[in-house]
Amino acid sequence: MVKSRKRKIDDIVIAVVCFLFVLICLLPMVNIFARSLSSSQAMINNRVSFWPVEFTLESYYYVLKDSAFVRSLWWTGILTLICTVVSLVITTLASYPLIYDDLKGRKFYNGMMLMTMYFSAGTIPNYLLMKQLDLLDNPLVLIIPNCLSIFNMIILRSFFADVPVSLRESAQLDGAGPVNVLLRVYLPLSKPVMATLALFYAVGRWNGFSDALMYISNPKYAPIQLKLYQIINNRSSIEIGAQEGFATPTASEGLKAASVMFATVPILLIYPWLQRYFIAGVTLGAIKE
What's the pLDDT at 89? Predict the structure, then answer.
């Protein structure tokens, strides 16, 4: 009885600490949301904290009226979907062969892949490489260079290695080849880890802007984070600035806050759909019998 009561108190303390931690993490987002719904005059007078002052939707109206921002939002969604699918396919193809002990050069391939985690050519050599490959101002430059994460590949390889070999051998006795074994045995068992890696790849691509900043100059291929970077640095479209009619840079804080919300909320909506898989995926290998 004493142990049960003590355990209950410990659970309550942990729950309270987790709640406070989440609340602290959400405070900046709540402040941005409040600023996006407040009037420009209230923000100029610095009267906005965690609740909208002089409620208005003008900032959202101007953001949605900017065709370049909306086009960038749609393009980023399509780009994120393509990158996630391509990355999962390549990660699977890179991980699956490495679980076969009879693969020739298996240790060499593992070593070469791990080496890329610790050594990198650098920014300038990467830029020169993209230039030689004629990928500058090409949407493929946002897909190909980051289509494989070695860290994610190791996670998936470890999961495949934990699948009982007897399942693979049973499928092989029934006449299944390596491709059929992958499609009929490993992938159906890999939903949690695949969902987790999909979330990692999607969030990474949605939040990425440094590659677009270096390699993309055509506004047509600018992802939403690059567009947001330009807006935050007061390089938003002339159309929005003229319609807002703001004379001072501080008056466009509502526009910036609304842009941040548009660039953040879509990727947050993915979490509830993948939550049940994500919890299982991040704890893979944590408990060994």
Answer: 94
Which residue type sits at 143?
Answer: I
Residues in the chain with pLDDT values less than 70 = 1-7, 10, 44, 234-252, 274-289
> For the chain, what is the mean pLDDT?
79
The yes or no reply on domain 58-282 and CATH 1.10.3720.10 is yes
Q: How far is it, in rounded angstroms, from Cα 195 to Cα 217?
A: 33
Identity of the amino acid at 262 = F
Q: Which distant-in-sequence residues (6+ apart) come within 8 Å of 225 by Cβ?
A: 76, 206, 207, 208, 209, 212, 263
Chain region(s) in the chain for CATH 1.10.3720.10: 58-282
